[in-house]
## 1
Amino acid sequence: MAVTPMMRQYYEIKSGCEDAILFFRLGDFYEMFYDDAYKASRILGLTLTSRGKDENGEKIPMCGIPYHAANNYIPKLLAQNIKIAICEQTEDPSQAKGLTRREVVKILTPGTVLEDNLLQSQENNYLMAISNDTLKNNFGLAYCDISTGEFFVTEINDPAKLVDEIEKINPKEILTATNLDIRLVQGFFTTVYNPLPYKEARDRFLKFYNIHSAEAVGLEDFHISFSALAAILNYLEKTKKITGFLNKPKRIDNQDYLYMNAVTLKNLEVLSALNPQNKSGSLIWVLDMTRTSMGARLLRKWCAKPLYNRELIQQRLDAVDFFHTNFGVLAELDSLLGEIYDLERLNVKIANQIANPRDLISIKNSLNKLPALYQILKEIPSNLKNLLLFPEEWLKATHDMSVEIEKIILDEPPVLLNNGGIVKSSYSEELDKLREDVKNSKQWFIDLEIRLKKETNIKSLKVNYNKVFGYYIEVTTTNLPQVPDYFIRKQTISTGERFYTQELKEKENFILHADEIIIKKEIEIFTALLADLKKYTDALQIIADKISVLDCLTSLAKVARANNYKKPVLNDNGLFKLQNSRHPVLEKKPDSYQFVANDAFFDTQTSNFVILTGPNMAGKSTYMRQIALIIIMAQIGSFVPAQEANISLTDKLFARIGASDNLFEGKSTFMMEMLESSGILHNATKDSFIILDEIGRGTSTFDGLSIAASIAKYIYKQIQAKTMFATHYHEITSLTEQYPLMKNMNIAVVEEQNKIRFTYKVIPGKAEKSYGIHVADLAGLPKEIIRDATKILEELEKEEISLHKNKTGKIKQLSLF
């Protein structure tokens, strides 16, 4: 059976996007065929039908969706990591000679979306590319968010660090070189690409940005990364997204930031709670009082990558301090920021020429707040101006942009261009005349009838309209001899004849197509405005950056005022001192009125290693987490929940807390514990801060105790990092007898009438016992078990069971030295 021309066209277009579901435009529908139809019907809940037969005489599976409802379906497919190729009719079917021309106008993928309904307003949507040098096992990492224009690049020399960085960035899509071990990106949506040789990739990059040397963007020594950079540019070109705004890549040097691996970010619940269903419970949940989406996205980046640069941290702290102290200024800025839209993403939509009329109104309304914002920021201390203030001359550019929009676009336009009602009256004489003609069309036909009656002297002549024949002139039979020659016969009726004139026909064509003509003219005016606004995008991008920073800093000031945080003091002498510190997240819980504040002290002369003991539920993990979170807060430039904080900067923060496994890869809980501990021991420095909770609990007592003690000694002697080491192995507390900078601390417990009461207070010294049976009782274990366990414990204590007996059979405490 012969293939129809339309299906032949479909096969040809589909061959160019085989890895995507093809939305093939047929009239008012996007149709899908064959495997695309099977897949889409299952995911979208569509009815599977058929259309014609293929060359083998088999029915062609088909399903479809209305084109105007596509945005309701596309997110569901992207959520399943499915690419979508949008194939449109690229010529008017009524004017096509033969088959209507069609072509793919864009490809939607999880990492390349620009549409508002497909993006999370407070999170970045990253597309990543990875290249690698197989000989040196080094990796180039490039990632961008095309909705904001951000572009970053870094190089990594270790596969484990690569995996960790990917998990922290959490891209929506990864382009992987053909020679990359696919296990490194397990769990992510990937597309394979053929890497270009270094010189070809570099030239592709330089040509795109119209620069002569990689030195211009500080990438002269990043040879591996150019394949990844070129892969992103080529992929964006393929998906029809390359024409817009993409910043030059910013080089990420990790030594400029506090390093935290993905496990630490997760354990400390920095960006999200451990329970994914719980929107509250994370550090970002506490700190985010931003008023703009772009500020919220930036604050997330700050929390994921705190600074390791004292000067920059101090500048942020000073800015927060200024706003914290000057409440009137803070309140004014807060009000203004609340009326500023997402300029970062709106600017990219201008650059990509995909902004809609309401986007322009959002930009105009936002820009109108800038003069007042500038006047306030002019009065801030001079040392903060370079951080927050944009050049005054840019106010003219933003004013001109606002005036252009104000002059043309109605204040409350529709979202869609093809609905009309976008352009103000008095802007275009041609458009005003078209609108006036439509408005006056009824009177025109009345006037025409009066005029024709006079010209023909036919008093009964009428100008009428019906849906079948349109507009016509009706003359009765008795008056037909008086009909002039320029009347053109249209229809004979029982009572006479119907005619039209060339004038009437032209007016009819205008009236019937007036809306279409007006909308076409409005689109022409809007498109020209959009093209003109593109000249402002560079200035608008930097203004958006400044406003994002301002939003973050005022958010931190508001949080500090609301929660009674204090400004930390930064030092260079290794001192870490907290007085009456609190957990920033837990104290926000409704039942946190009993929260107990605690001190912390580390330095290089007297104490840099704390062994923390105490029963479960007493608050060991809470105490350790709050110290880690305070480090993060201080190094993003935030005030902290403490009465006093004097902090030396931390270069790397590690938190190994809780139990986890990866059974899919054959890694048990204990193996995961050892792998994570190994990563800490190989990467920590003397300027790091380490939190280890219950190391060695996943194996036998002797094994676990031996490993825990050895890890503690290795950190103390070889790394010398500030460390909090929580354990139930009370034998480890004896290490403090030999190592002077090791200190025992414990969570105080009050025992009354064989019951315990947690005080949640951290005090010097070691805990005398673990109170495990008491905690089991509190947990509600059957009383029979509690009584039996108590009896067994008493017998063990009576026998003085120990971990070691000497040759004579006498009990001897195991030595850890």
## 2
Amino acid sequence: MAPPGQDTFSCHVINPEKNLHEIHMLKRTVSVYKIYFFLMAMVLGVALYIGYELMVHDVYQDPLTTEQRRWLTAHDGKIRMAPIPYWEPMEIFDENGNYSGLVAEFIKLLEKKLKFKLNLVHENSWEEILNKAQAGEIDVLSAAKSTPERDLYLVWTEPYLDIPNVIITRKSYKGELTLEDLADKRVGMMGKYVITEYVESTYKEIKIVKLKNDLDGLMRVSLGDLDAVIVEFPYASYAIGREKITNLRIAGEVKYRSLQSIGIRKDWPILRDILGKGLSMITTAERKEILGKWMYLMDTPFYQKKQFWYIFAASVVTSIFIAGIVTIWNLSLQKKVNEKTREIVNQLAEKEKISSKLLKSQQRLSTLIGNFPGMAYRHYFSESDPEWPMEYISPGGYELTGYKTLCGPGLENFFFNVVVHPEDGIYNRKKIITALKRGKPFKIIYRIKTRSGKQKWVWEQGVGILNSDGIMDSVEGFVTDITSYVNAERDLKSSKKLFQDLVMNSPVGISIVQKDSIVYFNPELKKLLGNKPDQFDLKKLDRIHPDDLGAANLFFDKIKQGQVSREEPHLRIMTLNDGEGIEHCKWVHCRAARIEYGGVKSILLIMLDITHAKDLERMVAIDDKMASLGRAAANIAHEIRNPLSGIYLYLSGMERKGFKRGFHGEIKESVDLIRDAATDIETVIKRILDFSRMGVPKFNIMDANVAARESLELSKVSIIRNNIQLQVNLDSKPLLCKADYNLLQRVILNLLSNAAEAMRNMTDEKRIVLSSGRKNKRIWISISDSGPGVPEETREFIFDPFYTTKSDGTGIGLSLCHKIIADHNGSISVGDSKIGGAEFVVMIPAHGGARG
């Protein structure tokens, strides 16, 4: 409170004196000159850099002769060039047809330097490109190697790319390898390439395995099917990174280099000379930049480049020069400021001696308020008068709002009308009036707009001041900036929401348990377990597979007792498929950890769906088992066939003798029965030999729908004869894939036959549904029936060799189907169909192409 008869604040009492004003002017001058010299330094630095660039870069000069330029202008946009398909990362076409890659970078740079455009032609294979180039339908090859055969119809520029070929092995092979070290090793290489012909002719002791594409070789080395593969270094680094093959390494480099040139039709030597000049214009720096981008080579560090040191030296000299000028000027100005400060201090000391105690009190109060980290104010107040003119605002108002003057003549309501956010002004007035009527202080939070247009959040606290008559006629208060606190609170809420979104959308089931109660249960866990139970007694869940209840009970009991088990069991959970009421079995990996949630010790329970991993594990086990049984089956079939041939001979002899002696009747009937039994044995032997002799599929690009329709036609008569309704839902678009047509047809026929066989003795409605489609990069074919289905407990065994539930079955059919689809890099699975029986789904990769 102010002393009696004195105002608490006054706009005139604490206005700066003349000398103080001069100090502020000097300080402002110092700041202005600092900004001026900083800007001058920036301008000088930019000028030096531009000058350097002008020195090191020449103005463009056309390297072509008049005749060459005229020819190139006449053919601009008409020269046909065919990039090599499926040659990542050398040449790449994305889904939108955009052309990129290492070779593409050189071609685009060549177009830029020669100021012309090529006409890109898309072809399906390297062989097709060579054929069309020989026929004159393609003018330019972007990158290839000169050979005697190609020289008959092409001329070449000087080589502009030297692509190293490297030896790729598994990381378990230690040390460096050369071609000599690969003797007697199985080494994968692409056929019909110069490097392959070189290795075949020079290192005949290497066992070369021809590949369908380079990625096939990398995958086979990763799986241990090959000892090594020889590929181009750019593709190796690109494919290993893209496919995330973590167990491979570069073990050595082949001395033979792939020198790549641009090939031009033989009747256009002028174009060869033009492109040769363009290639010579590509600088070493540009070449390094392209190779470093696509071949992951180490470029020269920036601190080893002359350009960096030129710019750095110029900047240092400029900075030292400007710093010296600024320092001298600052010392001069600082001297004047110090002299003026001493003069003012002396004047103030004199004034303090002659000032009254009241003036000292007011000055101390003003100094205290002026140093507040906010704005102190005083304004007139009347409940009936909407205008509350400001009588005083402390210097802190400038720091808060950016306005130097907030009160005075003509600015009485400036703070309320201009600074306070218009949406908050009326609300503030109502809250202030309500508090002052009750004789209490008020506290409000609202927004203001600074002079620069920035929005700030402020906190204000004020109280009513009574005059000598006990009537409230003014309000004094304080306003401080709380923007950082508001932003921090908002960021905290945003962070909590982000964390919540991550957990809510996590593909991992997450729950938090406190004192036998589940306090959190994310949607993914709901998909696995159903609705959240009230108490943590998961032993009562009926969705846990019966065979896993023991492990589940032990794990959950330890959690309830507060013991976080080090064991992480794998459990099977029965789940519903998309609300269709069809149950599917999923494998989940369980893990528990101690955490603190909401200040309470809790247990974090995580369930991860590992069904796909289990399926892959099962498929690998089946493949191993099939390989072993195949070898055994071949031996067994061979051993049985020899005595079986003897049985046929004896039967033929018995028939001849019996016929001569007139024995017919029961003896002939017995001979026929023995022959039929031998024929059945021969059939089984033939299927066993088919199983053991399954060769490498002959892949061709085909439409899977065609194989499905052909299989349907072959089995339609049998299906209709057995009164089975047939429904066909094949995709309307061609489903292109790279597969062996006969083997894929064989799988579909086998599945259709099994479906019909399963419903043979049914009296209810019999239905078979054949469907197909494409999902992401895979093609699927499904065969569903309305038969008895496949029990859950036998599904994991039905693809095992010689496992069957039929009394007259061999258990080979589904094993053969599984092996055929596995050779196609696909999968086959069984589940419940929507029409009540079993559903077999075959999935194989869609056609994506490979470099030919």
## 3
Amino acid sequence: MRIHALILAAVTVALGISAVAQTVVSFEGIDASQISRPEFDVDPNGAVGTKQYMEWTNVAFQAYDKVTDLPVWPTPQSGISPWTDNGITSCSTIGGDAVILFDRLASRWVVAAHSSQSNNYNFCIAVSSTDDLTVATWYAYVFPMNSYLGKNSQGNVYFPDWPRVGTWPDAYYVSMDLNDVNLSYREVGFLACAFDRTNMLINGTANAPICFEQPQPVTTTTYLGHGLNPADVEGTTAPPEGRDEFFASIENPVLDGKTTTSTTFNLWDFHTDWQIPTSSTFTQTVLTTAAYEPGCYLPANPVHTECVPEPSTATTGQYIDSVGDRFMPRMSYRNFGSYESFVVSHTVQPASSNQQTGIRWYELRGSGTPSIYQYGTISPDNTTYRFMPSIAEDAMGNAAVGYSVSSSALHPGMNASYFNLNSSTSTTEIPLFDGAGDEENTYHMGDYSSMTVDPENGCTFWYVNQYFPTNQVGSEISWGTRISNFTVPGCGPPALVPSTLTFSAQAVGASSAPQNITLSNGEEATLNIASINFSGADPSDFSETNNCNGSVAPGSSCTFSVTFTPGAVGSRTATLNVDDNGSNSPQTAALTGTGVVAVTLSSSSVSFGSVLLDTVATAKPVTLTNNQSIPLTNISIAIIGAAAYSQINTCGTSIPANGTCTITVSFAPTATGPQTATVNISDSANNSPQTISLTGAGMLPLYLSPTALNFGKQAVGSTSPSKTINITNREKVSVTFNSETITGTDPSDFSVISTTCSTLLPNATCTVFITFTPKVKGNRTATLSLSDSATNSPQAAKLAGMGD
């Protein structure tokens, strides 16, 4: 419960689910319908242990099996049962603000809350007897708090609001805001206490708490550094021996009615001395940071931080409280051995030009008093309000922040963002659950949520928050809660990332550009590599180099550079295997590539057939294809052979990966008969040069067959039988014959006795009939000449015979 300085507000929350590339497991937590007398005030929080996840909502708790997600108990347990079951009646009035912790250093569950009796307050702590809630009993304790809380001038005890609890080796540390009940529960200070963890873990008699109150003395002025968060150990590595506990709080802007930003926050060093309690100390350090404006901050009304819209806001005028006036639980602490890391977060206005809220986070480091190591703001858009965050850090230095989201177009839901604190990776936001309704009957939603990390693997983040399955209106109470878990890539058992590599088309026998696979060691021990090999169908097609040097330190990684050299055309596959001492050895990655002929032609030969002399045959295109995943360069194209051939192309000197170009070849014969040539293509491919064979023949337009007649021996004065010459028109137009004449040495010995040639259609044939009548003995010769309209007119045929 968070009580405004002016109003005791009801609390509700909303959240929902979605699926993304990052795997998120989400299941239903406690719903209002499971509680006999549910309240508007929900205060959802929880923690993950070795076997279960345990959740609190006002005023009940439930645990869920980590493997099956099934509840441990048939119904949620009464929030007061750990104490009333042990006969402690002074803890029977718990009304809210209970905190669930898993003490990772002791593997025990802790439930803590204040009683709500007016003007008489107790702090109640229960520690489980074992880490397994199916069989655990509770060691229950009650600590009267009035003397530590103090009283106002009217004699009323300050109300212990918004208690936060942190696990540390020497104590359970608790902070409480001091609210003045006579000033509408104004936050006038805080109380920080150390409770005797050592004896509570063994069910022994606990020493009285050691407490410090601020300010000294408490006045009626609003305390600007309220809402302290004690560090809570994440992981199973304890802080260094003797390490003090630390608390953190923001410093709200000075209350002058105009200032909206602050540039500091507070760090408190709590040193506990159980042997001499009076030697304990509580020391403040003020840390300076970049200016921030608390979420929804109004200088005229700074105790109200309501500005988050929901879809129903336009109708109801109801806005959600961002709880922007404080750090949100938890302040997560993790000891990495070489350094210590504290992370904490709160809701801010990302920029003055943007109205929506975002998340500011900080990492503190240092072996003494920690200082700000780095910080950032999560606000990837200008429309979605992000608020009420909870941050934690896994064993690999990945931080994850869960938070509520809402806008005028988005029902209140929950998202998370993660990033690596060591490598300063960019922030990745993932949806966890999408709400389906609004809270229309109150402005005060949820006060906080809870992000914790699985102590078994140091990697899985678990987050709980609240949502509405339908619009909550009037006096209706219909909230639900959702528990989500996810793991940031790179944390967990050793893994090859990516687990698959696909190589683009690669020329057979040529090596690809390398692709990288990262071997990450997400375990807390050194990964020693025993062997690296390839298996599968085509292991010899793949090779690797790496910078692992035989081992990978905890939280580190090394890189494999994999190259593909296909041995044949087609799909080629193999598996990269890394054998080591990891818990999931061997790690494997599937490799796939395709072997191709580097460059192919749509045709390796072009034939033009017979083409009329002095004409140009129809040009013929050939497509050149670069089948490689790299550009084809150094292209040079030339024709070797008959000069009747020529080419033009679109290739230039290079074409892109998987690109094509066209080579267009022409043939224009100037001589008759067959003519051959070769197009030679030289390039950067490993199958260069590529060639195209060219064939064609030149032919006359009007063709005589035969082109010579020999009549042999013929008696002088006698006439031979006729012989024929056939004339074929190869032009595309008709040919008209003008004359047939015989010339030469003995023209009178030969005669054209008839002809069928007058007008010759395209592709038609006509005939000339000729006889031989020798005048004298001996060889007789002449020439038949044809005059016509053909382009090769006149045509001639040799005539010969012998007079006998």
## 4
Amino acid sequence: MIPDRPAPPKWAERFLEWYCDPRLLEDLQGDLHERFMLRTKSMSALRAKLLYIRDVFVFLKPYTFRRKNQVSSFLFMFRNYSYSSSRNLMRSKLHTGLIVFGLTISISGFILISMYVSDELKYDRHYDKAERIFQITTELQSETSNSHVVWTDAYLGHRLKELYPEVEEVVELLKLQGKITVQYKDKIFSEDLLYRAERTYFRIFSHSWIAGDPSTALTNPKSIVITQKIAKKYFGEELPLNKVLTVSHENFIVTGIIRDLPGHTDLKFDALLSTDNEYLAETNFWCLTFILFRDVKDANGFGQKLSEVAKKYMEPEAAKMGGNVAYQMESLPSVHFGKKKLFDTPKSSKSNIYVFSIIALFILLIACINYANLSIVQVAKRRTEAGVRKIMGALPSQLMKQYLFESFILSALSFILALGLTAFLMRFMNQLTEKELSLQELFTTSSLVIILFAILIIAFLAGSYPAILLSSTNPLHAFKGHLRIVSKSRIRNLLIVFQFTASITLMISSKIVFDQFSILTDTDPGFNKEQVLVVDVPKDTFLIKSLPLIQKEFSELAFVSGAALAGYNSIPTSDMNVDTYDVEYKGEYVAKAFNDISVDANYIKLLKIELKDGRELNQSEVETGNTSILVNESLVKMMEWENPLEQIIYENSNAFEIVGVVKDFHFNSLHKSIEPIIIHGNNNSPEKLMLKVDRVDFEKVVAMERVWNKYMDKTPFNFEFLDSYFNQQYKSEMTMRNLLWYFSGFTIVIACLGLFGLVAISTSIRIKEFAIRKVLGAGFLNIVFPIVKEFLLLVSIGAFLAVPLAWWFMSEWLSNFSYKTPLGISVFVLPILLTLVVALLAMMYHTIMATRINPIDSIKHE
């Protein structure tokens, strides 16, 4: 029996093989083995092994490292992949151009939508304590109406702080209504984003300060904090601190300058004027209320405490008026997506965010599918190359790396071009969404990491399937011209169906949104809103006395056919005031809450609101504050009056006689049905002056401004068209319509590119079949029909799936409207027909080109 020969420790040998340069390994390993065997003859095996281990570590020196070879090997492979990829991409310019074009469009669309969604989700999250800040609102309920207003009574906030220790701080704000005149020396400005704020404001809301002390800025009476924009507008390069601004004839000292507020906030202001709770309670019972909890967990269950406060302090008074009051609470970051309230800022919709997020993913997925499908064409053309590489010893993994590297280059190039396209489209995007999006947001560290990760993901998703096909090529089949890319592959068909389902769903949704927006804007509101100028009336009581003279002189202008005054919240589209009246209902007087507006004698005639019964208000009644009123049809129907002109209604101790009934008109948007309205004749405190003009140009504006300045030389002449106010009600729908319209166009273009590539696949694979058919006498239709039938079937399946999907989704969206577009057959048929036409055009191009090839040229390669 031959005894076992001692051997060096295996782990030491493996360690040597791991770090040693392959060019030195064989010699070094042989010398160490020889030395080990000699040692075993003169010493114990254990000692020989220990010395072997020592020698392995002794040779652990820089010149023995294999790092240099690894780097050079990596650089060599990288250089080889780069040369090969650039050569292949340049060889097929059309294929490369289609892929880059499709990816560029899709990535640009994805970036634009992502920036829009990101901006929406950032609303009011920039405050340090945002998660602990909550807004309190009031819900007024009665038998006739359910009004949710953004305001609360001026005592609520401080009452909550006194009662509940979990409330750390509270602030109440009062927005100054209308255009406010602000004067600095001889400069006069008109502003509409001014608030009165308590001194606690900066203890709750954090801002970036340019000058001033946030702890004392609002503590002194008659102090004002302005934004950077206002500071530059009023003072230029002067230091604004301690300067005096005159706001509505009151002097305020500038005690602070803060940086401009970001666009993603609902609490927009240009200046904050100091005030206190006593002033708010005396001048206006309603204000905005924000509370700051000591801990965000304290908000859990606080709604019950709000109910107790409402029941104790507000319920008795509300019960006298035939209703009840409830307080609601929303965290600051969720306010932007909350339910629309009266006198509230414009809101967004969480459903819109989900819609656009899905659209962004669809655009990206469709682009990746197109990339994969278009790349399969190249795989078919490169089968011989793949076979030669395999015969020469290339491994499947190396072929996959090569193709994925090309995919990475195309994705990176597309990203660079997409950034340029995004920068070009950014201005149009901001116009569509009325935002201030900036490409600089993409160049933060986190954004760059996400972009790099996205490039890798797109390269992998788009290039993995073609890479697998290429690496699995059988050399023998490649040289014979056979490649296993089956035109009726289940995976490919599934991708095509998904692509067309997504595209057609977006197209149908765009059509429905477009039709619904047309319903909203084209439906007759029941009054004439065209060519009506709405002029801001100053709050100065002295100047208001001049309004009848101004109104008279405006009416005498040749191009002005009418002039009317409207009180607070009394022009169409405003959130109307709600008051409680005692009215006769089924033989007895009951308390009911109704919307009411205050107008002059010209209001009904100027807006051409149709009178159904009785008469209009006359000027003497308006000037004397007479108790004559008008009501609309909805109020008459609700109260079930047979003779409304015989009715008397009461508000407190005031009796009002109904002298006329107007036909129902949409004072507010078509999101909700028409509500009962009481129309008072009163011009003591007008907010707006409305002018009916035939056409507006520069000369006419100058003429009107001349009349205005004759009586109000220190008040700017500011006006807007009534129809612009009207369209602002549909801002959210307008944004959704515009974005869907444009990004549906993106998907159509990308889908066309995909279809172009898919038909190219089939025609390139079946080119010899077409040649044989042609030789055997087949006509053009016999050759084209199989391909047309195949793809039309896939488009039909996509349409079949898209119709119920779009119908379900858009039905949910339309449920938010009282007046909605019908989901008729044409809504679904037109987008499908458009898709079929585009598909046929793409298919016919390739099939015609394939049938025009000489059969001999196609068959001779066999």
